[in-house]
Every structure is written in structure tokens, then in C-alpha cells.
């Protein structure tokens, strides 16, 4: 019996030690938290969706510090006065001048610089470098295709996408918020112009290469530029480059006179197969084969050599005139 008593005592002590070694975590949430959160959610739902507020309207906002940080994030050296002007739109400057005039400020202090000239300068630099970059990277593509690809890179949608991801939305001083796609694109052009004025034209070229030309990465060029009349264009290219007369041939078909008919057409020139394509009829298959042949001639297939985004073009090869 004494042995049993001692065993029970040891087990009791072991349970006490085990209970003291484990820490029990409990959530202590006050009873007023749940009804308060429900009431706040109800009020927010009653108010409906609210317009986004300008980040510059917050107390801790410092425009000068934000501009300085913007340049450091990009690894560029800007003159703060030029960068400030790059983010100031003409409509915002005119509104500020009217407000100052109503406050009775002297005419000499009414003038507020805006980014109109920087936008034009940035547009000129951006287009010149993009065209030079495409001519260097796609030497076999005709001028029509180069212009279509350049238009894609310099379109408002592409520039606004780049500008928004660089963090310009809260830096732009405009009469509307959030800024429109056109305002985002213009601000990016103005930043290019400000960089050229601050650090030189070569740094502006590298900026265009790193942030605008790189939008072609993993991009199907056939989606960017699709010839409207591929057969006529192929005949013109073969005649100019002396590849021979274009001759489409039917390579195979299946399911004739059914809704699931399929045809395979090959494009030949001087007994050489240039491309082949499929379609639900002979005409569609011929156009697809012509597109495939153009991709082969222009070297724009998916398996082509990737773009070299580390290349540094000579400034003299970029036509700014």
C-alpha cells in the first residue's frame, strides 16, 4: 500500500510540473470590439464607395523628399527643380496662378513652371531612341513593321503602364485624381526630358531602353504587328530581296465537305519552303502560311534570339534631328 501511495503522489507531482511548463494562450477580446466593428462596417456600406484621396493631402507628405526618393529609386540624378516641373501639368499651374491672383499676390510671383516643354523634349528623345533600338535589334523587319512596333511601345497605354509602376501617380500635380492614362504618359515623357536636362542625353537614352524598350520582353511580335495583306506583302518582299516567285501549294487536307475541314498549305519560292499554315479553307491556310513565311524572313519567330536590353547604342546612331 505504501508503494501505491508513493506512486500516486509521484504521478500527481508530474502532472503539476507538466501543467506549469506549458503556457496556455488565450485571446482576450473585449465585448465592445465586435459591435463596434459591425457598426463601422455598416456606416461604411451606407456611405458607399469613396473617391480616392490624394496622398499629398496627408499631413506627413513632403513633396521635396518624395521627389528625391523617386530619383534614388531609379538610380538617376535629377535636379529637383526640373523634376518638380516635370510632374506639374499646365492645367494645375494655371489653376494655381488663378488662386494666387485671387489672393492678391503680385504678378511677378504668379508664374508657375509646368512641364509642357519637357513633355515635347521627352517625346522626341523617346521616339528617336526606340526607332534606333528597333532598327538595331530587328534589321530584317521592314519600315512598316518597325513603325508599328514603335507605336506600340510609345502608345499611351504602354507608357501609362510603365509610369504607374514607377510610382508617379502620387507625384503628379494635376487637376484630376487619380491621374488619367494620358497624364501618366505625359509625366513619363517629362521625366525623360528632365533627366536629359539634368544628367545628359546618354542617361535619358538608357532610361528609355531600361523602362520602355523592355516592354517587348516575352512579347509575341505577331500580336504587335500583323500585316493586313500578308500574301501581297510576301510577294513584295520576295521581289525586293530576289527570293523568287511566291507559289502556294496544298500539302494536305482532311474532312472535306464537313464542318471540321482542315487544309495545310505551304508557301514556296524558288523551290524552297518558306512557311506553312493550317486553316478551315484554302484561303485561310494560305494567309496563315504567308504569315509564317514572313516571320521566317523577318526573323520574328518565338524562338528567335532574345532582345539585348544591355546594349548601349552610340549617340550618333540615334537621329535626334
From TrEMBL:
Domain of life of the organism encoding this protein: Eukaryota
Compartments in which it is found: Mitochondrion
Gene Ontology biological process terms, A to Z: mitochondrial translational elongation; RNA processing
Main location: mitochondrion
Pfam families the record matches: DSRM_MRPL44, RM44_endonuclase
GO MF term set: double-stranded RNA binding; ribonuclease III activity
Keywords from the UniProt entry: Mitochondrion, Ribonucleoprotein, Ribosomal protein, RNA-binding, Transit peptide
Domain RNase III residues, every copy: 81-221
This protein's name: Large ribosomal subunit protein mL44
Native source organism of the sequence: Drosophila simulans (Fruit fly)
